[in-house]
């Protein structure tokens, strides 16, 4: 899976001639979102069962959060899990993505209009996850452009399930959010995710 070959964000930046910076994505005041009863119970159950590897973290922590995100947007975004995003194999922009969020309801099995990439941090290393996410965001940008969809920005996240770090690709600049967000403050995390979805869809 070539996307996972990228282990440092500087490798992605050098290969695709991108600028890298750190910054703050969110306004000081932002709406927190109450988790649904289903999400709260699902996460509590997951904590009691435990999660020892990436697959378990993905299924028990990340997927339920994304399910709520889709539900609170009236299912006008689609969650793709474990789908291939093959854009340019000669430049290692191909392979499986942990999660992609796309605009609109799912109409067919192929990935359609992706705008948000979420990567499970390999070996619980957020930096490794950010590098893979950066490559997927650049691949997503090229994929959409090939389909005639031009968006000025794309967001992504590297997560262990417990900790989330966000990334933005705007034009040819990669910005890493200076703040990390935690599952222990779920209302804040849900609010941040919703803000990013809204921000992309406004363009």
Elements, N to C (H/E) = HEHHEEEHEEEH
Order of strands across the widest beta sheet?
1-7-6-5-4-3-2
- The separation of the N and C termini measures 31 Å
Residues in helices, as a percent range: 25-40%
The number of helical runs is: 5
Class by SSE composition: alpha/beta
Largest sheet: 7 strands, mixed
Question: Globular, elongated, flat, extended or rod-shaped: what is the shape?
Answer: globular
Please state the CA-atom Rg, rounded to the nearest Å. Answer: 16 Å
Number of strands: 7
Average pLDDT for all residues:
90
Low-confidence segments, given as residue ranges, are none
% residues in beta strands: 25-35%
Précis, in short:
With 203 residues, the chain is an alpha/beta fold. 38% of the residues lie in helices and 26% in strands. The protein is built from 5 helices and 7 strands; from the N terminus they run αβααβββαβββα.
Structure description:
The chain is of the alpha/beta class. 38% of the residues lie in helices and 26% in strands. It contains five helices and seven strands; from the N terminus they run αβααβββαβββα. Strands 1-7-6-5-4-3-2 form a seven-stranded mixed β-sheet, sandwiched between helices. The two termini are 31 Å apart. The mean pLDDT is 90.
């Amino acid at each position: 899976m070539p996307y996972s070959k990228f282990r440092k964000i500087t490798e992605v930046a050098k290969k695709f001639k991108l600028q890298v910076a750190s910054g703050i994505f969110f306004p000081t005041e932002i709406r927190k979102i109450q988790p649904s009863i289903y999400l709260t119970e699902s996460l509590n159950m997951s904590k009691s069962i435990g999660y020892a590897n990436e697959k378990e973290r993905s299924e028990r922590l990340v997927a339920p959060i994304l399910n709520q995100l889709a539900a609170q947007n009236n299912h006008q975004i689609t969650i793709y899990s474990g789908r291939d995003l093959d854009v340019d194999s000669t430049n290692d922009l191909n392979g499986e993505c942990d999660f992609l969020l796309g605009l609109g309801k799912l109409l067919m099995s192929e990935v359609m209009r992706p705008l948000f990439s979420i990567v499970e941090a390999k070996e619980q290393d957020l930096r490794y996850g950010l590098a893979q996410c950066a490559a997927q965001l650049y691949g997503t940008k090229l994929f959409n452009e090939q389909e005639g969809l031009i968006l000025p920005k794309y967001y992504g996240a590297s997560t262990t399930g417990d900790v989330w770090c966000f990334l933005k690709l705007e034009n040819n600049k990669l910005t890493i959010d200076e703040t990390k967000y935690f599952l222990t403050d779920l209302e804040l995390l849900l609010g941040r995710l919703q803000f990013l979805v809204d921000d992309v869809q406004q363009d």
